[in-house]
Amino acid sequence: MTRSSSLGELLLEGFDVAQPGQWKLKNDGHSVVLEVGGAMRVSGGGLPGAYHTMQLHFHWGSPLTNGSEHTVDGHRYPAEMHIVNMKSTHPNVSAALDDPTGLAVLGVFIDVAYADNEQFGHIAKKLSSVAYKGQTTWVKPFPLIGLLPRQNMSQYYRYHGSLTTPPCSQAVVWTLYEVPVHISWSQLELLTSGIYASEEEGQESTPLHDNFRHVHPTYSREVYASQDAKLLNSRAGSPIYPTFSMTIFIIMLLNRCIH
User: Enzyme class, one word (predicted)?
Assistant: First the structure.
């Protein structure tokens, strides 16, 4: 891993206020997706331009397993949130996917605590309305900064990779925050036990479990630490089970995807 002096704190415009209108929450069969319109913008922090925020979604495991898409020193967090942003010079996502830096995704680890996360609660209380694939509902906008590690925003890691769901386009500038946010056990359970990959009218309900992409080697790509992040010792190719080593590393997600 290389320290990069250009990786300062990102500029998140509109994240600290409640946007007007309504946000759409949907179950697309792969995840729970919150579409947030185009009023928020991400720039700075070494990003090659300004990016408009489109949506955020979640990855999780099951009642018995963790489900973050990135791992740190073999440790997989209970869940992970991705905030997806499209470069403002592109008219649509299709055009952005043809650009190696067309999308900028902010990845946030989610850990568990005993207290509810008030901001995540805006989403949690609506999850029963999108339990099945194809269902949608509306969420009143809230300051999105509440779902980010606001006291540690300058601590993150950066690499160039791909989407983690089909079509897995190599078009993403990844920003992975070092410090997790916390939700309660009961809030996590709403994801791991209350969301289905099947439609409500189907003959059999299929729980949506383990909707994370499997870990892949770095394939010699650089991982950069921001100015304030811990400088991790990358050990690509190491096993992804917990070890007794104090060394921390990240194995990136690159070439294959899960369906």
Answer: lyase
Structure tokens at 66: 């963790």
Q: Tens digits of per-residue pLDDT, 220-247?
A: 889 999 999 988 775 544 433 333 222 2
This prediction's pTM: 0.89
Q: Which residue's entry shows tokens 């870990």? A: 215
pLDDT tens track for 81-103: 999 999 999 999 999 999 999 99
Contact predicate 225/231, CB 8 Å:
yes
pLDDT digits (tens, 9 = 90+) for 176-202: 999 999 999 999 999 999 999 999 987
Question: By C-alpha distance, which of 51, 52, 47, 49 is closest to 6?
Answer: 47
Checking DSSP bridges between strand 41-43 and strand 51-60, what pairing results, if any? Answer: antiparallel
Which listed residue (30, 75, 160, 216) is catalytic? 30
> How many CB atoms sit inside 10 A of residue 21's CB?
11
Residue 184 structure tokens? 């309660």
Q: Is 30 a catalytic residue?
A: yes
